[in-house]
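Reader question, answered in our methods column.
A reader sent in the components of a multi-part assembly and asked whether the whole thing could be modeled at once rather than chain by chain. We filled in our standard form and ran it. Here is what they sent:
COMPLEX SIZE: two components
ENTRIES:
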Amino acid sequence: MLTVREDIKVFDCTIRDGGLMNNYHFTDEFVRGVYETCVAAGVDYMEIGKNNSPTLQSPEEYGAWNFCREEDIRRIVGENNTDLKIAVMSDIGRVVKDELLPKSESVVDMVRIATYIHQIPAAIELIEDAHAKGYETTVNIMAISKSFDGELDGVLEQLSKTPVDVIYIADSFGSFYPEQINKLTEKYTKVAKSVGKKVGIHAHNNLQLAFANTLEALIYGTSYIDVTIAGLGRGAGNCSMELLLGFLKNPKYKQLPVLEFIEKHIVPLEKEMDWGYSIPYMITGQLNEHPRSAMKARDEGNTAYTAFYKELITIDE
Amino acid sequence: MLTVREDIKVFDCTIRDGGLMNNYHFTDEFVRGVYETCVAAGVDYMEIGKNNSPTLQSPEEYGAWNFCREEDIRRIVGENNTDLKIAVMSDIGRVVKDELLPKSESVVDMVRIATYIHQIPAAIELIEDAHAKGYETTVNIMAISKSFDGELDGVLEQLSKTPVDVIYIADSFGSFYPEQINKLTEKYTKVAKSVGKKVGIHAHNNLQLAFANTLEALIYGTSYIDVTIAGLGRGAGNCSMELLLGFLKNPKYKQLPVLEFIEKHIVPLEKEMDWGYSIPYMITGQLNEHPRSAMKARDEGNTAYTAFYKELITIDE
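And here is the structure of the entire assembly that came back:
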């Protein structure tokens, strides 16, 4: 616990995961605040949003950070002459491959491909395209807690043959316990190490385990660690950057800039946006379900928890 | 994860730990609600308060559950003809030994002795007295994250020679990480098993690790598991009963009564009482400090987190 692991990369996804709560309608001031915080805190990567296509999703409905046009990113980061790398996330079916600029024309360093298991062939196309254009790449396999038996082994085998740099364990429903994360870490790192790739972890806080699961993955060999400031993210939110930085002993990481950002930007935001652990998210996490019903309950201020629970456990066979 | 551990005892301390937030001024309806919830949920123990002496603390300042007079307890639980056992906690220096009735005259089943390391001789006196009077006993060694080097080994050695039934790992400042809880569990269970005692865990949620640390202790051999409904407890609160019951696979434990209690009693309470994880508690947890400065900050609605942090890390040598 008192040593420094040089392989660890702290990966901020505040804007990208938090944007799921407000359709990416963050102000420039807020996004610039996250950027400056990441630089000052010594964080390694910042995911500034999604690079979905405006031909497939409406720019009226979604804010700039759902599309991440080059000029929008540069408005915040300029030429980004810092040690912080910039990432964007690609959703299968919502991106247009040809819209991705060559790396030489972009301030973006990394493209992360988010994929469900049934979309893996499409994900591999995007990985190959982004890699060929000069980007670092990750693949984030979502909803694996619903994957059928040995299915995941086949997926990892396929991905190991692609040029992807990092394979992510994504606990989309926040339903895993640390001992399950332990087993998943073993499975992922075994495949990844054999072909010189790294493993990442992206946790959700439905069971108040986002930080604990992140630590479990980290300790057993995961290198890329997704965090968001104050846990800002979809539903129950994510592993908090400030919790992780308090744990890591590498002096390059600084806690104070994160607390400054929270004080200035998160305290007011908490009054108008609702994220983080609560009973409905716990229930969907325990039942290994997507949190959308819990998000609806929170939106409506519905605290009829017993009815909510009974409805979710009703089985029509 | 799919088996049942018969040694596990789910131990509710909602009233006792929650009472630290309101000087034990709970209504009878609330206390009865917790009692009925514990019975319906299949919980094994309920700690109904402290048995401090009204000659040492003022009944004007503190409510009934700081004193737990026999008639007050019976007003809630009657003869307690249920499988739920009733516990009270004794604070060193705040109890008068002779006030403890013989077990034959009391509806209480267990006395828990809370002690700092420097109070161990006084704790042993109370253990011996309670044991001689016919009670089950536990000892909860507080603030061990501040204990000096091998000191704790000597304490455990001393306690192993007493008639105490359960020795508790208490994470008073919410500052331990799971890998530290793992080592503590190994240390405590080694001593306890050699003399036929059990080990317990009492966690706080300063680092969002109360549940994770509880799971870590449980998996590695701890039997008595302290929880509170909705985590209601001092400062950042405790491991939530509803999180633990969702994890345990023993069908004797029921989740629905807990959700009913939360819906009816916790939702309104949350509007007037402030407990649970927040940034000031995270800071005192990371710095291994008592949460009292964080409780003050929360009371005052003080969100100047950077100033709070800077003040705590200032060292006057």
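What stands out: The longest helix of chain B spans residues 178-194. Strands of chain B lie at 9-12, 45-50, 85-91, 110-115, 136-141, 166-170, 198-202, 224-227.
Send us your own complexes using the same form.
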